[in-house]
Amino acid sequence: MENEKKIVGRCPKCGGNVVKTCKGFRCENSIGDNPSCNLNINGILGNRKMSDDEITELLTNRRIMLDGFMSKEGKAFPTVLELTDNGEVLMQSVIGKCPNCGGDIRVGNRAFNCSNFTNQTSKCEFSIWRNIGGHQLTLTEAQEICEKGITSAELEMYRDDGSVYRKRLGLSPDKLQIVKI
Ligand SMILES: [Zn+2]
Ligand SMILES: [Zn+2]
Question: Residue 28 C-alpha to ligand 1 middle, in angstroms?
C-alpha cells in the first residue's frame, strides 16, 4: 500500500482531498508537477501542534475554537481558527458582539469577555464563563447567547452530587448575567 494516503477532509478551494503530509496538511491537487491548487496548512499553528481531527473540523466547519496556543512570551491562549475561501488560516479571538454594550466579545482562557472591560469611560463587565455547571461551552453556544440571547439546545449540566440536569443558557433581562432557563 505504498500509495496509501491519510485523507483528513475536503479542500475549500477546489474540493479535492486534503491529505496529511510530513509538514502538515495539503490538498492532493497541490502535489506533483502541475499543481492546480495551493492549499497547504502547516501542522503547527501558533506554536501548537494540530491534530488530524482538529484539521477535519476546521475543513468541515471552517472554524474551530481551541486552547493551548502559545505566545512569544510563553503564555497559553485560546483562539478561533478560521479557514478562508482562499485557504488561509486566520487566528481570530473575537467571537461576536456584546449583547450589553455592542463591544467585541473575545474568547479568553476561562471566559468569553467583553473587550470594553478595560474601557475607562464606559466599562462593561459582561462575560460568559466557558465552563458552566460542568458543561464546556462551544463556540456555537457562546455565539447563540450573544446573538439570540439563548442557546438553541438544552445543555447537559451537573450538580454537586453528580446528578444531571438539562437547561438552556440565556441572558438575564438586564443582559448582564447568564441564567439557566
Ligand atoms: Zn485544493
Ligand atoms: Zn460589553
Answer: 7
